Amino acid sequence: MDVVMTTKPTILIYRTADTDMTYLQDLLFGMEEEGIPFTVEEVSGNDAGVLADRASHESALAVGVGCTTKAVVLSYKNLPPQQFIYRLQPYKGQRESLRILGSNAARLAKGNPFKSDDRLEVAF
């Protein structure tokens, strides 16, 4: 009998090495509250939008988040590479906005309506 191992579908979060995870805890709490699992990976790069786009293409849920020291970006696999769903910059000290961004990432994966926050920049 062959054993097939599969990984659990998650939202992929790509972050640069210099990104302090302390500031991103509320982003993760937002996803957790919506019941969607996530995976955080350290990657090279310096553009949060590019990281989010890469993460969305590698996520089984087609949802990716990119984090640098300057910005956090939410993207979806079917968007053009230069476009995004939400961007928050600067994000340090924006705990509620980060939590809403995390919640919206999970809601995107579930197909539920987004929560609104005036601090979240929309690309379209």
Summarize the structure in short.
The protein has 124 residues and is of the alpha/beta class. It contains three helices and six strands.
List the helices and strands and how they pair.
Layout: E1 11-15, H1 25-33, E2 38-42, H2 48-58, E3 63-67, E4 72-76, E5 86-88, H3 95-110, E6 121-122
Parallel strand pairs: 1-2, 1-3
Antiparallel strand pairs: 3-4, 4-5, 5-6
Helix pairs in contact: 1-3
Protein name: Glycerol dehydratase reactivase beta/small subunit family protein
Q: What labels describe this entry?
A:
Rossmann fold, alpha/beta, 124 residues, 3 helices, six-stranded mixed sheet
Explain this structure.
This is Glycerol dehydratase reactivase beta/small subunit family protein. It comes from Veillonella magna. It holds the Pfam family Dehydratase_MU. The protein has 124 residues and is α/β, with parallel strands linked by helices. It has a single domain (11-112), classed as Rossmann fold. The protein is 29% helix and 20% strand. It is built from three helices and six strands. Strands 2-1-3-4-5-6 form a six-stranded mixed sheet. α1 packs parallel to α3. It is globular. The mean pLDDT is 93.
